[in-house]
Design a protein that fits this description.
Layout: H1 3-12, E1 17-22, E2 26-31, E3 40-43, H2 52-64, E4 70-74, H3 75-87, E5 91-102, E6 113-116, H4 122-132, H5 139-149, E7 156-165, E8 168-178, E9 183-191, H6 200-214, E10 219-224, H7 229-236, E11 240-249
Parallel strand pairs: 3-4, 9-10
Antiparallel strand pairs: 1-2, 2-3, 4-11, 5-10, 5-11, 6-7, 7-8, 8-9
C-alpha cells in the first residue's frame, strides 16, 4: 500500500470508521454505517496466503451485529481473489480510485457565494442531497453524520459547504482534513440537478481544496469511480490516480 493509503487510514479512523483493525493478512475497516459499501476487508497478500478463517470470523461477528461487509481489493490483487470470491457468492460492486493532488498554490475562484452548512441549513442540505442521489440508501443518515463530524473537537477538521447562485443552492461538498497529516479528503459532493454540467463540481473541488490549503494542508485526495464524471473532471484539474480498488459484495 502507498503512503496515501496509510495516511488516509489515520485520517479516517475514528471519523468515518469506528475502528480500523490490522490483521496479518488483511485490514478490517469497521464503519459508523452498516452497509456493505462502507465496511471492508482489505487483503494485504495474494489469495493463497490469505487467512480466510480469520476473515470469516470477523465477517460473522459483524453480520451478527447487522453489518454487511465487502472485500475491498487492490487492483494488483484482484485477479488472485476473483475466483474465490465468486465461489463464495461475492459479485463486483464498483471500483474506487484514489486520486490525489499536491497543491503549490490556491485556486483562483473569483467571486463566489458560499456558506458553511450548519443546523439552520440542515433541512435543505438533506433535501437537495436526496434529489441528487435518489437511489442512495442512507442520504439523510450520511448528511447528519457529516454535520456531527464538523462539531467534533480535535485535529481532524470537517467542513460542509454549499455554493449558492442568486440565493439558490447549486452544489454541496465536504472536506475532512488534518494539519498533522497534511492531508485532506474530499467527500459528500453533489450538484443540484438544474446546475449540473456547468462546472460546479470543479468549483466545489477548488473551494474545498482552498480551505484546507489556507489552513496549511496541501495534499488533497478523493475516492471516485474510474472514468466517471467526477474522475474525469478531477484528472483535468491535475489530480493523479494513485490507487484503484475493486469492491466485491454479496449485497448487490
Amino acid at each position: 500500500m502507498t503512503d496515501l493509503f496509510e495516511k488516509g487510514k489515520q485520517l479516517l479512523n475514528k471519523t468515518f470508521y469506528k475502528d480500523i483493525t490490522e490483521y496479518e493478512t488483511f485490514t478490517h475497516f469497521e464503519s459508523v454505517f452498516k452497509g456493505a459499501e462502507y465496511n471492508f476487508i482489505v487483503p494485504k497478500v495474494e489469495e493463497n496466503k490469505f487467512d480466510w478463517g480469520k476473515a470469516d470470523e470477523v465477517i460473522k461477528t459483524q453480520e451478527s451485529a447487522g453489518v454487511q461487509i465487502s472485500f475491498y481489493v487492490e487492483n494488483n490483487l484482484t485477479e488472485s481473489f476473483k475466483v474465490k470470491l465468486t465461489e463464495q457468492g461475492y459479485k463486483f460492486l464498483f471500483d474506487d480510485v484514489h486520486v490525489v493532488k499536491q497543491l503549490t498554490e490556491s485556486y483562483e475562484l473569483g467571486e463566489i457565494d458560499f456558506i458553511e452548512i450548519g443546523e439552520n441549513e440542515k433541512a435543505i442540505f438533506i433535501e437537495k442531497v436526496k434529489e441528487c442521489f435518489p437511489n442512495f440508501p442512507n442520504n439523510e443518515e450520511f448528511c447528519n453524520f457529516c454535520l456531527e463530524l464538523s462539531k467534533k473537537p480535535g485535529n481532524k477538521i470537517n467542513k460542509n459547504l454549499a455554493i449558492k447562485i442568486k440565493g439558490e443552492y447549486a452544489a454541496f461538498g465536504s472536506i475532512l482534513y488534518s494539519k498533522d497529516l497534511n492531508l485532506g479528503f474530499l467527500h459528500n459532493a453533489c450538484t443540484v440537478n438544474e446546475y449540473r454540467h456547468k462546472g460546479f463540481h470543479t468549483l466545489m473541488v477548488k473551494l474545498r481544496a482552498n480551505i484546507a490549503f489556507k489552513d496549511g494542508v496541501n495534499i488533497i485526495y478523493a475516492n471516485v469511480e474510474e472514468n466517471g464524471g467526477s474522475y474525469n473532471s478531477m484528472i483535468k484539474m491535475g489530480f493523479k490516480p494513485e490507487l484503484r480498488f475493486n469492491v466485491f459484495s454479496k449485497s448487490v
